[in-house]
Amino acid sequence: MGLLNEIFPCITARAKVNVPVHTNEDKPITDLKSPPAQPTEEEIATSIISALFAAEKPGHDLERTLQDIVHSCGWYEGLAKRVLDLLENTIKCGKDMVGAMKEADDKAAAEASDFVHEHPILTDVIITVIAIGILVILAPWAVEALGFGELGPIEGTFAAWWQSTFPDVEAGSLFGYFQRLGMKWGKK
């Protein structure tokens, strides 16, 4: 209170005035409200995976749930990769699939069967392919975030890396399938 009374005349060019100063000496600072902490990328990705496993079927309800989870940050490549990593780990651990996840896993595995037969030693790649397939079915906007864009693979993304690693993309390949989905999704 003394300091404020000393500088007040300097600021206002007036004579000293006793300005009451209120303190919170009886309330600890921890009682003050602070803005809620923003969830981390890991927390958002974990929530997305939980929602995918909890969904009974794909569709508008699941889409609305996922969009509610990512509403503050939107879909971006880092988040899509984190979701993909968590989904790959879940598949590797052999977690039982139920509901929408079981249906998506079955469809993705069926789509990946030709790739599996052609490349049986690429287990991690196969798991990634199945995980992407699940995302395509349950969260197609994640495919665009991974770089499968409306006009083709987006430079510097997972899709561009895949295309440069496996450059011989044939008609009917999984890469082509994901790219077509990205093109369709980009037009919505």
Bin the helical content: 55-70%
Tally of discrete structural domains:
1
How many helices in DSSP terms?
9
Outline: globular
Reading the helices and strands in chain order gives HHHHHHHEEHH
Mean pLDDT: 75
Outline the structure in words.
Mean pLDDT is 75; it is low at 7-17. The chain has a two-stranded antiparallel ribbon. It has 188 residues and is mostly helical. The longest helix is centred in the middle third of the chain and has 20 residues, at 99-118. It is 60% helix and 2% strand. The radius of gyration is 26 Å and the shape is globular. The chain has one domain (41-186). Helix 5 (99-118) crosses helix 6 (123-138). The chain is built from nine helices and two strands, in the order H-H-H-H-H-H-H-E-E-H-H. The chain has helices spanning 2-12, 41-54, 60-69, 77-92, 99-118, 123-138, 141-145, 158-165, 174-186; strands spanning 148-149, 152-153. This is Lincomycin-condensing protein lmbA. Keywords: Membrane, Transmembrane, Transmembrane helix. InterPro entries: IFI6/IFI27-like, IFI6/IFI27-like_sf. Its main location: membrane. It is a multi-pass membrane protein.
